[in-house]
Specification:
Oligomer: heterotrimer
CATH topology of chain C: Cytochrome C Oxidase, Chain A
Largest sheet of chain A: 5 strands, mixed
Largest sheet of chain C: 2 strands, antiparallel
CATH class of the largest domain in chain A: Mainly Beta
CATH class of chain C: Mainly Alpha
Radius of gyration of chain C: 25 Å
Strand content of chain A: 15-25%
Number of strands of chain C: 2
Number of domains of chain A: 2
Chains: A alpha+beta (369), B mainly alpha (197), C mainly alpha (646)
Number of domains of chain C: 1
CATH superfamily of the largest domain in chain A: Cupredoxins -  blue copper proteins
Strand order of the largest sheet of chain A: 3-2-1-5-8
Radius of gyration of chain A: 29 Å
CATH architecture of chain C: Up-down Bundle
Structural class of chain C: mainly alpha
Strand content of chain C: under 5%
Shape of chain C: globular
CATH topology of the largest domain in chain A: Immunoglobulin-like
Number of strands of chain A: 12
Order of helices and strands of chain A: HHHHEEEEEEEEEEHHEEHHHH
Chain lengths: 369, 197, 646
């Protein structure tokens, strides 16, 4: 007999596989820590309104079922490994050759199918309930640009960027699309609007309209960012949602609807002049709107700056709104955020501004309360 | 099996089985492009749409291509009987009809471009040119194969007792024809009847 | 017979070169092609690993920029492309090439030259993709290449569209080859239900490729036409629909997931029975579950698009289909576990990796089910939770199983055993490193970290930062582990313990022949009378189902293929000749690919012409004796269960 098992070199050492299961459980152990809202503000496990809460409750049930299945499978694996390992005093005989067990196999086909069917029912119900348009929704239009989000409040004719104010306790219906530059779908790419504590994500598609419902139960600042890869500065396309109570929200709406004031300060006035005319170079006003009350508001290629200083961050909400940051941004925008203006016109151009021009422009921007 | 040289598990020659498998894949290739065309059949972006098609003209070239399947069958038939001379005649006829079809397509494309339907005019234009263009490329490859078969039957590379070689090329040729039957119906005829009314 | 062809020009004459560079360039031997796949995959795996190291370095700390966004985006895109198309898929192809003929009792694949063609296309397409780094930057539109981002010239996705399409040609040719080989070249007596599960999975995988590749091919052509030639397929300005690309991509992309995992499932279904010393539990169920997975796999694609533009009805339908496909996957897991149940388990490195596969794949499968919960999918989608999921499936799943296969078949390929001590070091560090790298990603994703971001935002918080750091540490362990593996591979090839023909007391046909197998695999094609044929030649079962050794010599009536009758048979065994034409033809692909990418008509023309000339060389190449379908040329019929030189 050319291959009796005693001569075979393979069974050298028996290894207990118990530690392996330990490593498999690592992921679950890690899951135990880290649910603190202040330490993790973009946390999908810490919902703050029904559109995030309902899916969270459903997935909790599913995760528990999954954990049970995980434990069951690993119990079977570990039990087999311990019980049926080839022992030191092995007599070299072979185990009974079982080829299968139809009844058992039907059992583990039907049981998972039933469990899944059980999960499927609430899933399908929730798909519909989450996507239904709420009755009294507050509508905000969202336009995804490379690489910032523009918001338009159609009832109030307000344009703003990156930071969105919403009323607390009232469902918000986002009507979303994508385009580059503003309002021209020719160069739009797909983005995704995601503020985990308020709702799951929804893609923004150039040339099409998609919708997302959000609701914040409590006032506060909610964090999010673009979740569909959209090119160079995808990581720098962040979202802030400020949920305001009724009084604060009304005040915000009123402030945003007001036109920008023409500055009295000499330096700022000079800045306003430069904003509209930089000679040979492209003027700021070619892309950015500062609405001073003449005619209707029209969106520009870049963010609306009428009430720039009402926002805490700029450049896709990656930089704090400080005079130093603004000055650096105007001086050398690509050092603050990667953009492609020279290649395909996306982003902020480097305008070669002089120190004097920088001072004036920053002074002007600081007046846009 | 063609000549009894190989025992195969299914009793089909490897090459024939391989060709069938390949053609199964090709169906999905054309299917995906066809589905895309249907999606865009009305997306003309202000440019010309299906009304640009000249149904009588394309019907004639389609008929020629369809007839080439007949001559292909006759060529295979002749080869099965070991008659290489007759096989060559039918092969040439098949290739000629394919060339007529291809010429018709080139002419048709030229007319369309002159009438303003360029490659980048609209999704309709792009999907039309890519779909029918890939079919044309398949016809072109088919003609190359037929001419190769013709030449090799002269040099003795293809022998009278090897009808499998003609059969293989025939399989491919019939496939290309069937695809055109579908394309002609779905791309030209049905939109003409439905979209324009 | 050989005298009639000896003087014909245009090909190498027997005996084929067995040594040196030329012998590898011209080889049509499925075993050598399999080995070339394997070593090429290791090189690409190294590149993909370096890219992952760069990614982890960048994300080790919040708001840091070791790499610029531009480079980072290229790196993660190439990491995905490399691991999917240049590592996992061709890794499986290496196994298919080497093992399919051996396991079904054939001498080679059906079309040996086409097989070489597949490999060369794979190699040159891979080189083409990597050459992009030197030609203005690598693709940076992510491995899914969504339009319209990928039609923008700055995305460099022309390389992607053309390179992956070329890889598709390679896969398509290989799949046709394997389908015909498996359907048509099984040894006498090997019915479908006697085929090893690995062969079944190879067959299902090949059919998946056959039907999925043309679809990605259309999508990539559209991407290329839009990006390079002004087409309007996905151009929103003229009414093009970007979502169409996603549908086409995932209509390929989801079967692709099974294309990557089914070969591994096949490998596990071979190793677990051998090291448990029991047959596979529920052979038929495993086979049909595999086929079912392949079939249903074409109906779940849109679950990758739950957050794109889809209505609630479509979302529901694809949620149900996705849950449905979990059932056959679950069947397989239980069948594998119960294969171990009641056996006598030998914990070789191969067995450890196999068990590791079952465990890790279970985690990946369960997190996959959570994706089907559409309302919450909107939270998981495009976050690190998804990254964790598919690494548990493709790394913890596919790669663990493929490595199990390497340890398992290494003695057959080289005649030597891999070092088991090093192997165990490899396994435990691999398992630890893998879980440390990808386990925390589940959490960082749910805590709000999106994938494909060049910067880890500081506002995600210190917890997420810690998870990312842990991932980085895990990757360092994986690198160390990979070095152990590489050393073990190289050292064992030279100095490993001699293995003999059947070191594992294995079950399937390939262990019946010598290690390494002769060029012609068998002196005499074995006749198959059982599933697990080799096992049944060694053991019979008594009434209680207990195996008893068959007395030596009892198997002689079905023929000992190792050479008992070698003198009588050898001179009649015809093997396909070496050929340089596949290589020559593929060289034409190089100018063609660059020409398409840079819209250069002369390059395209040169490439096409070259390829056509190569093809004619291929066709005209004198056929070896017995390869033609001319009965006048047919040699001794007893020796012709071989391959056609096509």
């Amino acid at each position: 007999m050319r291959d009796s098992s005693a001569e075979r070199p393979s069974p050298r050492r028996r290894t207990r596989l118990v530690p392996m299961a330990g490593f498999s459980l690592l992921a679950l152990l890690l899951a135990a820590c880290g649910g603190d809202a202040t330490r993790t503000p973009q946390n999908a496990l810490n919902p703050a309104g029904r559109y995030a809460q309902e899916p969270h409750d459903l997935i909790t049930i599913v995760l528990i079922i999954a954990a049970v299945v995980f434990v069951l499978v690993h119990f079977l694996i570990i039990y087999s490994v311990v019980k049926y390992r080839q022992r030191k005093d092995d007599d070299g005989s072979l185990p009974v050759q079982i080829h299968g067990n139809t009844r058992l196999e039907i059992f583990w086909t039907i049981i998972p199918a039933l469990i899944l069917a059980g999960i499927a029912v609430p899933t399908v119900q929730m798909i519909f309930s989450q996507m239904d348009e709420p009755d009294d929704a507050f509508v905000v239009e969202v336009i995804g640009h490379r690489w910032w989000f523009e918001y338009y409040y159609p009832e109030h004719d307000i344009y703003t960027a990156n930071e969105m104010a919403i009323p607390v306790g009232r469902p918000v219906r986002l009507q979303m699309t994508a385009s580059d530059p503003a309002r021209d779908p020719a160069q739009g790419v797909i983005h995704s609007f995601w503020v985990p504590r308020l709702a799951g994500k929804q893609d923004l598609i150039p040339g099409q309209m998609t919708y997302l419902n959000m609701l914040a139960d409590e006032p506060g600042r909610y964090y999010g960012q673009c979740a569909e890869y959209c090119g160079l500065s995808h990581a720098n396309m962040r979202i802030r949602v400020e949920a305001l109570d009724d009084a604060a929200f009304d005040a915000w709406l009123e402030a945003q609807q007001a036109p920008a004031e023409v500055p009295a300060d000499e330096l700022a006035a000079r800045g306003r002049e430069l904003f509209g005319d930089l000679g040979e170079r492209q003027a700021c006003a070619a892309c950015h709107q500062v609405w001073e009350g003449d005619g209707g508001r029209t969106p520009g290629t870049g963010p609306d700056l009428t009430h720039l200083m009402s926002r805490e961050e700029f450049a896709g909400a990656i930089h704090d709104m400080t005079p130093e940051n603004l000055r650096e941004w105007l001086r050398d925008p690509n050092s603050m955020k990667s953009m492609q203006y020279e290649v395909n016109g996306i982003g902020m151009p480097d305008l070669d501004l002089t120190d004097e021009e920088l001072d004036a422009l920053v002074a002007y921007l600081l007046t846009l309360e | 099996m063609a000549a009894g040289a190989h025992e195969t598990s299914l009793g089909i020659d490897h090459r024939k089985l391989g060709m069938w498998t390949f053609l199964g894949s090709e169906f999905l290739f054309f299917g995906a492009f066809l589905a895309t065309f249907l999606l865009y059949v009305q997306t003309t972006a202000g440019g010309p749409g299906v009304e640009i098609f000249d149904i009588p003209f394309t019907s004639i070239s389609s008929f020629v291509l369809l007839m080439s399947s007949l001559t292909m069958v006759l060529a295979h038939n002749a080869h099965t009987q070991g008659d290489l001379r007759r096989m060559r005649m039918w092969i040439l006829a098949t290739a000629g009809q394919g060339a007529v079809f291809l010429g018709g397509q080139v002419f048709e494309f030229n007319v369309f471009v002159r009438e303003g339907l360029t490659f980048g005019t609209s999704p309709f234009a792009t999907s039309f040119y890519v779909l029918t263009g890939f079919h044309g490329a398949h016809v072109f490859i088919g003609i190359l194969l037929l001419l190769t078969l013709y030449t090799f039957s002269l040099t003795g590379k293809v022998k009278p007792n090897q009808p499998l070689k003609t059969e293989m090329i025939g399989l491919y040729w019939h496939f290309v024809d069937i695809v055109w039957v579908v394309l002609f119906t779905v791309v030209y005829l049905i939109p003409e009847l439905t979209v324009l009314d | 017979m050989s005298s009639t062809t000896a003087t014909r020009p245009g090909r190498y004459q027997r005996p084929n070169p067995r040594e040196g560079f030329i012998s590898w360039i011209t080889t049509t031997d499925h075993k050598r092609i399999g080995l070339m796949y394997f070593w090429t995959v290791l090189v690409f795996f190294f590149f993909g690993g370096v890219q992952s190291a760069l990614i982890r370095t960048q994300l080790a700390q919040a708001e840091q920029s070791v790499l610029t966004e531009e480079i980072y985006n290229q790196v993660f895109t190439m990491h995905g492309i490399t691991m999917v198309f240049l590592v996992v898929m061709p890794f499986a192809a290496a196994f298919f090439n080497y093992l399919i003929p051996l396991m079904i009792g054939a001498r080679d694949v059906a079309f040996p030259r086409l097989n070489a063609f597949s490999y060369w296309v794979f190699l040159f397409a891979g080189i083409f993709l990597y050459s992009s780094f030197l030609l203005g930057g690598a693709p940076n539109g992510s491995w899914v290449g969504y339009a319209p981002l990928s039609t923008d010239a700055v995305s460099n996705m022309g390389f992607y569209a053309i390179g992956i399409n070329a890889l598709g040609i390679s896969s398509l040719a290989a799949s046709i080859n394997f389908i015909v080989t498996i359907l048509n070249m099984r040894a006498p007596g090997m019915t479908f239900m006697r085929m090893p599960v690995f062969i079944w999975m190879a067959l299902v995988t090949s059919f998946l490729l056959l039907f999925a590749v043309p679809i990605i091919s259309t999508a990539l052509f559209m991407l290329m036409f839009d990006g390079v030639y002004g087409g309007q397929f996905f151009e929103p300005a003229t009414g093009g629909d970007p979502i169409l690309y996603q549908h086409l991509f995932w209509l390929f992309g989801h079967p692709e997931v099974y294309i990557m995992i089914l070969p591994t499932m096949g490998i596990i279904s071979e190793t677990l029975p051998v090291f448990s010393r029991k047959p596979l539990f529920g052979y038929a169920a495993v086979v049909f579950a595999g086929a079912a997975i392949g079939f249903i796999g074409f109906g779940v694609w849109a679950h990758h698009m739950f957050t794109s533009a889809m209505g609630p009805v479509a979302r529901s339908a694809f949620a149900l289909a996705t849950m449905f496909i979990a059932v056959p996957t679950g069947i397989k897991i239980f069948n594998w576990v119960f294969t171990m149940w009641g056996g006598k388990l030998r914990f070789t490195t191969s067995m450890l990796f196999s068990i590791g596969f079952v465990s890790m794949f279970t985690i990946g499968g369960l997190s996959g089910v959570t994706h089907a919960i559409v309302p919450h999918n909107a939270q998981q989608h495009d976050t690190y939770y998804v990254v964790a999921h598919f690494h548990y499936v493709l790394f913890g799943g596919a790669l663990f199983g493929l490595i199990a296969g390497v340890y398992f078949w290494f003695p057959k390929v080289t005649g030597r055993l891999m070092n088991e001590t090093l192997g165990k070091w490899h396994f435990w560090t691999w398992l630890l490193g893998f879980n440390l790298t990808f386990g925390p990603m589940h959490m960082s994703g749910l805590l709000g970290q999106p994938r494909r971001t060049a910067v880890l935002p500081a506002e995600l918080g210190p917890t997420v930062e810690l998870y990312n750091l842990l991932s980085g540490v895990g990757l360092i362990i994986l690198f160390g582990s990979a070095l152990v593996f590489l050393y073990n591979l190289l050292a064992s090839t030279k100095k490993g313990e001699l293995a003999g023909e059947d070191p594992w007391d294995a079950r399937t046909l390939e262990w019946l022949t010598t290690s390494p197998p002769k060029a012609h695999n068998w002196d005499k094609i074995p006749t198959v009378t059982h599933r697990d044929e080799f096992w049944h030649r060694k053991y019979a079962e008594d009434e209680a189902g207990r195996p008893v050794a068959v007395p030596a010599g009892a198997a002689e009536d079905v023929g000992d293929p190792r050479g008992d009758n070698a003198e009588a048979l050898d001179e009649h065994i015809h093997m396909p000749d070496a050929s340089y034409w596949p290589f020559v033809m593929v060289l034409g692909l190089v100018p063609l690919m660059y020409g398409l990418n840079f819209a250069s008509a002369p390059l395209i023309a040169i490439g096409l012409l070259w390829a056509i000339i190569g093809m004619y060389g291929w066709i005209i190449e004198p056929l070896a004796e017995g390869d033609d379908d001319d009965p006048l040329d047919a040699p001794n019929p007893s020796a012709t269960t071989g391959a056609v030189t096509y």
